[in-house]
Amino acid sequence: MISRSVLVDIHRSAERLARTQAKLSSGREISRPSDDPYAASRALSLRSDLEATRQHQRNISDALAWQGVTDVALGKVTDTIQRVRELTIQGASDAAGPLARESIAAEIDQLVEALKQEASASYGGRYVLSGTATQTRPYDPGPAGDVYAGDGGTIAREIGPAVAVNVNVVAADLLGSGQTAADGRLLHVLRDVADHLRAGTTAGAEALRTTDLTRLDANLDELLRLRAASGATGNRLAAAAARLGEVEETTIKLLSETEDVDFAKAMVDFSLQQNAYQAALRSGANIVQASLLDFLR
Fold this sequence. Notes:
mainly alpha, CATH 1.20.1330.10, two-stranded antiparallel sheet, two-stranded antiparallel ribbon
């Protein structure tokens, strides 16, 4: 009975020593859920929250890159429209002759193609201004390619639990589908400007000074509105990224406090348990000395 009792105590001491040694070697307070069911459940929940936070960060990173490409494209479109406005004013002047107006019309034709090229801006192999049809080029070269080929869908990125932000701009809302659609958008207006310049008539010059310039200014205002909205979205994404960075840092700290071992405490425990184990072995050797042969003498 004494021998069994000593062996049980030594075995328990060895188990405690082994558990502490396992904590030191793994760096984890919890090796299996049975070590601490509550802490294990909390660690799983924190890990799930951390992964969700990091996924939202990846979504924001992708959205910011998407916004950056969109903003560059809209900026170049703005520069192009400013140039078209200057040319329209020049062409509407009575001092401009037929050759000058033909040259201006030819330049505007090239600027139309430049607009369609900027509308084909892409990010990661996806067209950013084609709505949800990101594999479809929004406009093809040439007058026949003025018809918008994408769709009007919106692309959203989730930046938090049940929080999504639309990140795309649809080219058709700005450029339209040309003269055939007669939608008053940029491609329609610019084609009309080129036609009025080539007409070389008083009515054409008057249309340039009144109708065309008014429609250009209206489209320019819409372009500036879209750029402002895109900028506001970018600011919101940047603020969300900063907030998620703080959330990630806090979650990592809580997770470390929950499942990481306190090495200073574990080293002290290991030293004490090792000494206790050695003492148990020595005391057990001293207690269980008599054997059957001692009684047979």
